[in-house]
Amino acid sequence: MVIAAMLRKHSADVYVLPNSAEVGSNWRMGMKKLILAAVISAASFGIATAASAGTLDNVKQKGQVVCGANPGTAGFGVPDQQGNWTGLDVEYCRAIAAAVFNDPTKAKFVPLSSKDRFTALASGEVDVLIRNSTWTMSRETTLGIIWAGINYYDGQGFIVNNKLGVKSAKELNGATICVQQGTTTELNVADYFRANKMEYKVVTFGTSEEALKAYDSGRCDSYTTDRSGLAADRLSMTKPDDHTILPEIISKEPLGPVVRQGDDQWLNLVKWVHNALLISEELGVTKANVDEMMKSENPEIKRLLGVEGKFGESLGLSNAWVVQIVKALGNYGEVFDRNVGPSSPLKLVRGSNALWNQGGLQYAPPIR
Amino acid sequence: MSSQISGSHATAKVVFYNDPKFRSRFAQFVLLVAIGLFAYFAYENTSENLRKRNIAQGFGFWDVEAGFDISQTLIAYSAASSYGRAFWVGLLNTLLVSLVSIFFATILGFIIGILRLSRNWIVSRLAGVYIEVFRNIPLLLILYFWYGAVLGALPEPRDSLAIPGDIWLNNRGLLVPRPLIAGDILYTVAALGIGILGAYILARFARRRQAETGERLPVGWISTALIFGLPLLVYLGVGTPLGFDFPEKGRFNLTGGLNLAPEFVAMVVGLSTYTSAFIAETIRAGVLAVSKGQTEASQALGLSRGQTLRLVVVPQALRVIVPPLNSEYLSLTKNSSLGVSIGYPDLVNVFTGTVLNQTGQAIEMVSVTMLVYLTFSLLTSAFMNWFNRRVALVER
After folding, report:
1. Helices (DSSP H) in chain B: which residue ranges?
2. Among residues A192, A218, A251, which one ends one of the domains?
């Protein structure tokens, strides 16, 4: 403002009167630069403040957890017509809210496209990103973010229209494939066709809806994304029964909640909310029996439910944190079943997502 | 102020800090330093913060293998190429779609603008409807319309529409035979060059002749014959040294030939129709700005309506048309960044989209992209300013 004032003064002091347009444009230009500088500085300060404060304190102060969510993948994150969010990832966010506030509704969802999600997390727009995000090395080493666990073991697949008569991804030589931008999908499909020495044409879209619409209208022979996503997307097509998901799984896609690096307290919290959901299932603690389980003699259950020890406090929560989560949402198995499993339209099998002692990969370290 | 000054200098020497020149320079200097310091601070602060949270920075990614494919590439590119190469692919795609769209938008805009001025009531109203429709719909919707509703409704590859001359149209685009150089094409190219040069010399000669004698030559016809006829004769003479790669039916789509992807076609048609509506209004304004006396005078001299338009009205209207036309071209180029919504791999789609996401370096990508668009805009402006000086009224 001082500079602007000076500039104005300077213009007025000139003895040979410049025409008014010149003064105006000079002044305007000065203002523009100032505004630009202000915006840049605000942006950089924004980054600075997000770094210093502890996320948990911040969340408690705001009174809600802000989660980056999928704008529309059935079973994982999608708002219904009333604006209520549902899905596996969405319930993870609610679980965090239940652990912190003992109220699963204190979660706010920010729909993010694949391309915007990591920037939104890194810049502090959201507290945690739970949005079918694949854990990869480069993302963790260059984006300043860190995965807190794997809440869904997935792999990339292809979906094709039945009338093409394609039974295997190996038959896709020469096909046109629609993909969504900013995903590991985009890279895996290139790798797959390169490795199998096949030709293909890729059409890349900014959002999954656009890519899906293009595939549905016949622009592409196949659409590719994580297989769980394909199952969800199939439901949104004009004629779901006309499309088949090919058997090949061409990549590892470990999906899970992501937080910013440099805030270990918050990382621990998100990680242990996930672990608590798994351990609850492992120990048979469900939404229905959690009150009864409080009376259990099993020391593992006692520690889990905070009857013994101060595990909740060590996370900055109350010791009944797991009781709060399970009362609100149930255990991992219940959440899975309700959103993507047999009780949902997706009807996905547990497969790799079964507990470790039931042939799956879901394994949580013990609470002790 | 001057009452303070005394002594032998009757001309009242001003103290340096009261000198208007010094003051103005000093103010400018302070402003410059302040902005410089601020920029430095913003840069340092940002990079410090990025370092703190382990976010990569710098341009080290430029030579790293990209690992993704792009549907339309003007230069050789594969998933094994570098991010830098992907940048150039995107940049060229942006340039291509902008230049082709500018070409069509200008022609279409010019025609619609003239039709809008027609004395024929129906014609002028139809042009008016065209302008109002395309000018008042957001460009994104126009793109969706052409891409989804028009091109998306074309038949599937198996039921491709056949157009005589081995041209096929389906929802994967327009396939035309790809010309292949089979023999010695050089003579034909040389003949084309000679034809263009000949037409240029002829035009100069004809102008001088008209100025001296008042006689006019049929320049148009002779030029056409020179530019098209001569190379054609040579081409046939040396035994048609051009082969064609015809599209053939493959497993999924027609293969071979030259494929104009629907994304590209939708972008060109969308950008051209949208921008042409604005250009048409610019043209109309320019023509109306030429005083009616000019038209009446040229008609009094016996010039036909066409000649009046071509020789008297348009040259004068251009003075008014060119500056706003420049802005239309600039916005068209910038609007081409909407390509990402319909899958056209322009700079924003490839570089600020995919590359940004794979590397996560938003600040570098966005700065480079801004720089590219700024360069495009400045180059377009420079060209249009040059053109404007050429068509400007020479005042005596």
Report:
1. 20-52, 83-116, 121-135, 139-144, 186-213, 219-224, 230-237, 262-289, 292-300, 305-307, 314-335, 347-349, 356-359, 362-391
2. A251
Cβ(A91)–Cβ(A329) under 8 Å?
Answer: yes
Contacts of A13 in chain B (CB under 8 A): 20, 23-24
B200 within a domain of the structure (yes/no): no
Distance between CA atoms of residues A361 and A350, nearest Å: 10
- Choose among A33, A118, A189: nearest Cβ to B360: A118
- The span from the CA of A131 to the CA of A99, in Å, is 19
How far, in Å, CA of B154 to CA of B151, rounded? Answer: 5
Asked if the structure places residue A364 within a domain, the reply is no
Residues A229, A350, single domain; the answer is no
Q: How far is B364 from chain A (nearest CA, A)?
A: 13
Range of the domain at B29: 18-53
Shared domain for A234 and A211, answered yes or no, is yes
Phi-psi region of B356 (alpha: psi -120 to 50; beta: other; left: phi over 0): alpha
Helix, strand, or coil (residue A328): helix
Of A30, A204, A261, the CB nearest to B343: A204
- Cα A254 vs. chain centroid, distance in angstroms? 12
Separation of alpha carbons B24 and B29, rounded Å: 9
The pairing of strands A65-69 and A128-129 is parallel
The total domain count for chain A is 3
* Amino acid code (one letter) for A75: G
Point out which residues pair with B242 in neighbouring strands.
B181
- Spatial separation of the C-alpha atoms in residues A126 and A132, rounded to whole Å: 15
Taking only residues 137 to 156 of chain B, the set having a beta carbon closer than 8 angstroms to any beta carbon of chain A reads 148, 152, 156
A145-147 and A258-260: which strand pairing?
A: antiparallel
Q: How many CB pairs under 8 A join A and B?
A: 167
Residues A259 and A343 reside in one and the same domain? yes
Domain boundary among B9, B38, B53: B53
Domain extent for A45: 2-52
Residues A173 and A235 in one domain: yes
User: For the segment A155-168, what is each residue's pLDDT rounded down to a tens digit?
Assistant: 999 999 998 889 99
Among A36, A52, A68, give the residue marking a domain's end.
Answer: A52
Q: What is the largest CA-CA distance in chain A?
A: 94
What confidence score (pLDDT) does residue B182 get?
65
d(CA A179, CA B170) in angstroms, rounded, equals 20
| d(C-alpha B264, C-alpha B280), whole Å | 23
Cα B39–Cα B43–Cα B44 angle in degrees, nearest 5: 120
Q: Which amino acid type is present at position A88?
A: L
Tokens of B93: 């795609």
pTM: 0.77
Q: Are residues B26 and B125 in the same domain?
A: no
Q: pLDDT (tens digit, 9 = 90+) per residue, A16-40? A: 334 444 444 444 444 444 444 444 4
Nearest to A336 by CA among A311, A302, A300, A360: A360
DSSP state of B14: P
Whether residue B211 is predicted with pLDDT greater than 80 in this model: the reply is yes
